[in-house]
Amino acid sequence: MANILIKHAQIVTMNKQEEIITGDIRIKDDLIVEMGSGLVPQEGEKLIDASNRTVIPGFIQTHIHLCQTLFRGKADDLELMDWLRKRIWPLEAAHDEESLYYSAMLGIGELITSGTTTIVDMETVNHTDFAFQAIAASGIRALSGKVMMDQRGGDVPEALQEDTAASLQESVDLLEKWNGYGNGRIQYAFSPRFVISCTEPLLREVRDLSARYNVKVHTHASENLGEIEIVQAMTGMRNIVYLDHLGLANDRLILAHCVWLDAEERRILHERGVHVSHCPGSNLKLASGIADTPGMLDQHISLSLGADGAPCNNNLDMFNEMRLAAIMQKPQHGPTAMDARTVFRMATIGGAKAVGMEQQIGSIEVGKKADLAILNLYNFHTFPSYDVDPISRIVYSATRADVETTIIDGEIVMEKGMLKTIDKET
Ligand code: GUN
Ligand code: FE
């Protein structure tokens, strides 16, 4: 952690008033300690001149699979269940410790260089400790966990099939090793893959463990019609109804996708405070469908964004997800349905709420963690003198190439495209 003074920046705060101001930000250790104009550099502070730069809260992606980064290009043009059976599960089963470490590192590098500072990540069945090692060394903020697959629904390959007790024990061992690590930068999240691959005793135990340790549960639900049919045949219920029946639907639950919901499921999501991670790129590429995000927002369901795994959309870039989240709704719901500010909110403070950290991250305010990205929006987009809403410019035209610096927990983890290894404990 460092002491940093950022001067002369345009700051997209995402505070309660969603103010956009021009000024300086002082960072001491992991925290933003002062904001204003004319702040005077103090001894030992690193000075960043952010003239003509825009500082934003780091993006929070609430659904990622770092273990899948190396599979890009190996799983294209398939629908979910075939994609899993034919490509993703065999590839995950083939991971060894080293390949998992590098898959995670490659993904984290892409995330950090494109301004993402926090992820909710799901690993594979084996070797998850090595993904945590990559997370620790990279400096990214992460909630992660080993995937749990103790049921052969959907033809899970032998190599990923695990015993219920072993799955739970390995998860708890990883939790005890990593939860709270690195100034709280790493948290454990139980990660039952989806209803199809998990037994009821496992899901009930996960519910109890998440309450006992006060950690999140991260899973997939109602992504694809074929998946929903299998869940219905196995449980006699729709996905969200089943999760609620088991007592899992609460504000510790982060659900990826939720493309296909009926009215009862929406009611459950709203009433229980479940957090939905919308993954537009993945939903389009896997032909899953178009989630009704305007409807979910109208119903006050907690919504945030994620890129899913690299082979789901070939890209872990939040700029891509924000843009898709906005434009894919417009033909059906009109031009203002998912406007730039709504989508940017989902990418920042919405993600912070999903991970239960809205007091710490998701906006740029005194007392919050210093998790932010510095953008040069004058790269190719427009002339500096143009008076353009920076949020609109970020959502509709910015790219990862515009991210100059990423800071997480007060540490500069990327500067001018160069990543830095942070962790001194491993
Ligand atoms: N459902 C179960 N597993 C997966 C996965 O790895 N990716 C996606 N997109 N959906 C899933
Ligand atoms: Fe996923």
Automatic annotation (TrEMBL):
It catalyses: S-methyl-5'-thioadenosine + H2O + H(+) = S-methyl-5'-thioinosine + NH4(+); S-adenosyl-L-homocysteine + H2O + H(+) = S-inosyl-L-homocysteine + NH4(+). Keywords: Hydrolase, Metal-binding, Zinc. CDD domains: ATZ_TRZ_like (cd01298). Zn(2+) binds at H63, H65, H220, D308. One of its GO terms (molecular function) is 5'-methylthioadenosine deaminase activity. Binds 1 zinc ion per subunit. Its EC number is 3.5.4.28, 3.5.4.31. InterPro entries: Amidohydro-rel (IPR006680), Deaminase_MtaD/DadD (IPR023512), Metal-dep_hydrolase_composite (IPR011059), Metal_Hydrolase (IPR032466), MTA/SAH_deaminase (IPR050287). The keyword Ribosomal protein does not apply. Residues 54-413 form the Amidohydrolase-related domain. The keyword Manganese does not apply. Its cofactor is Zn(2+). Substrate binds at E92, E223, D308. Catalyzes the deamination of 5-methylthioadenosine and S-adenosyl-L-homocysteine into 5-methylthioinosine and S-inosyl-L-homocysteine, respectively. Is also able to deaminate adenosine. Belongs to the metallo-dependent hydrolases superfamily. MTA/SAH deaminase family. This is 5-methylthioadenosine/S-adenosylhomocysteine deaminase.
